[in-house]
Amino acid sequence: MKGDGKMNKFLKALFLCIGLFLGGIGLSGTVHADSSVQSIKDRGVLKVVTSPDYPPFEFQINKHGKSEDVGIDIEIVKKIAKDLGVKLEIKNMDFAALLVAVQTGKADMAIGGINPTPERQQNADFSKIYYYGGQEFLVNKADAEKFKNQNALKGQKVGTQTGTLQQQLAKKDLKDSKNVGMDKATDLILALKTNKVAAVGVEKPVGQAYVDNDSDLKMIPADYKIDKKDTGSAIGMAKGNDSLKDTANQSIDQINKENLMPKYLATAGKYMKVNTTDTSMLHYWKYFYDGLTHTLLISVLAVIGGIILGVILALMKISKYKILSWPAISYVEVVRGTPMMVQVLLIYFGLGVIINIPSLIAGIIAVTLNSAAYVCEIIRGGIASVDKGQTEATKSLGLSNGDSLRFVILPQAFKNIWPALGNEFISVIKESSIVSIIGVTDLVYELNVVRADTYRGVAPIVVVMAIYFVITFTLTRGLNYLEGKMNHD
């Protein structure tokens, strides 16, 4: 009972800290002195976040082997940056993280075909509507006679992108259908073409872009009963940034006055044709190469950092002093008890309230901290596997506890746990792909970019699978060789 009381006190303190931390995030995201425009001008850069998997609003082209964000939304923020007299810096991440980025100060604006719903307006400010798209469904052309309209989708699976207006509308009006939510539009199209869903809810320009570039798809009308204003796209900003909102509205007014939107749409169409001219995977080799280098960089640094931190945590955990063992036990339990995705988001957005950490650094830190918890347990088990007689022998030789660990216990422990450490390295390589959610250009991120650019759902997946297999197979063989050498010695 006494131990339970201590545990309850610890849990209460932990939840209190989490509550205070999240409260701080909420306050920092909603309280702003309105110096937003002046801050941007002083910095000389307008920071914008988007999710480039939504043609013709935003997508990427392969320009001289390098990725470049293009589309209607990109032209709009270029216009705003020009009107402000500053440079434009675009950061890519998942759609669901866009408004979080402006709330936590990672960006000044979020643009991505965002519908300013009442729920979103509670946590962010929005510009005027700059585009009214309308709602449609994409279906396979082979099923066009079967699914002629929205009513025909009763009892069917309908795909929508997570966190979008289309998902809200489907849940509200298609109660006789099963909604299937996915983070990426490219995943939805692949699900449609492989008959995992019967239809995909999209905005009309997006649907038209896919139909124009994929002869196997067709659009059917959506008969949602909604106001026109609820189907429009707007630019998201942090609460209280009134001067920035006014500036964005002035640029939008000028775009409408000069009738620039048709020009932007035509430009996006030209870029889309560029992407579909050569959709071979060899044409996009630079994308996969860049993704591979980032994946390996994150994995190597995370494993090195994880081993160092894991050793420290293991020694703390086996310490007889509770002031050392309790923090280590708590850390390991919290990290192992929460998904890595949540940890990545907390490091990038949560710590971003205090210090602006680049996405790559945040990804490395998050994967390192996660790996350290598992390495800690591996090393602790390795130390426990060393015969107690070894410790007694070191004492008889007059070695201190530190020298005993350093020269006798740990070397034997590492020899015992080498296979487990190798498996952890391989796991880190595969699991590090989660950092793509915050825009780190690893293999999975580049995979989604190529899929969005080429309208090819399966080929990029096969390429990335092959790359991961070659890495892990080579690493496994190398670790097995070293393990054999160690056992022989």
UniProtKB/TrEMBL annotation:
GO terms for biological process: amino acid transport. The chain crosses the membrane at residues 296-316, 345-367, 457-476. GO terms for molecular function: transmembrane transporter activity. Residues 292-476 form the ABC transmembrane type-1 domain. It is a multi-pass membrane protein. The keyword Signal applies. One of its GO terms (cellular component) is ATP-binding cassette (ABC) transporter complex. It is found in: Cell membrane. It holds the Pfam family SBP_bac_3. It comes from the Bacteria. Keywords: Amino-acid transport, Cell membrane, Membrane, Signal, Transmembrane, Transmembrane helix, Transport. Belongs to the binding-protein-dependent transport system permease family. HisMQ subfamily. Belongs to the bacterial solute-binding protein 3 family. This is ABC transmembrane type-1 domain-containing protein. It comes from Fructilactobacillus sanfranciscensis (strain TMW 1.1304) (Lactobacillus sanfranciscensis).
